[in-house]
Amino acid sequence: MNDMMRGMMRLAWEWRWESLSLAEAGRHQRAWETCISILDNWARDRDQLREDGLDPPSKEVLDKALIIARAMRDYDSPHPTRIVPDGDGGISFERTTDDLLITYGIAEDGSEEVNVFSQCHLVFQSRRPATNR
Question: How many CA atoms does the CB half-sphere of 49 hold within 13 Å?
């Protein structure tokens, strides 16, 4: 696991509710399982995204997204509000809270980016260039 993923998980951990009950933790794991199922479905049939007019994520991007989703599930991190293809061959995990929007994107070239917005203002951004494939 790279430093950016660790940092994102630490960030997500710090922003979780202070008194997370076991029932809520189970809800997060179930939601992560749904995300993993969606990613698996896209990996099995990338053409479904092409039919929607999107450039589907590559196998490498989908594999990386699955590794991250499974790690976040296992870390018991709060689940994303949504996971979407970015239309240019990448994937974005997005989580909204009362006052924050957190995005974690994997671009087509394998680079990664975390953005945190508060009241529509960018308050944190971190980019990690792609490693050699």
Answer: 22
Residue 27 token pair: 């809800």
- Inter-CA distances, 68 with 47, 56, 73, 85, 116, Å: 23, 18, 8, 15, 18
- In 3D space, the residue among 77, 82, 122, 87 whose CA is nearest the CA of residue 108 turns out to be 87
**DSSP code string of 54-86:** -BPPPHHHHHHHHHHHHHHHHTTPPPPSEEEE-
Tell me the whole-structure pTM to 2 decimals: 0.76
Q: What is the pLDDT of residues 44-89, one digit of tens each?
A: 988 888 887 888 899 999 999 999 999 988 887 888 888 998 888 9
Degrees (nearest 5) of the Cα angle 72, 73, 77? Answer: 60
CB half-sphere exposure, 32, CA atoms < 13 A: 21
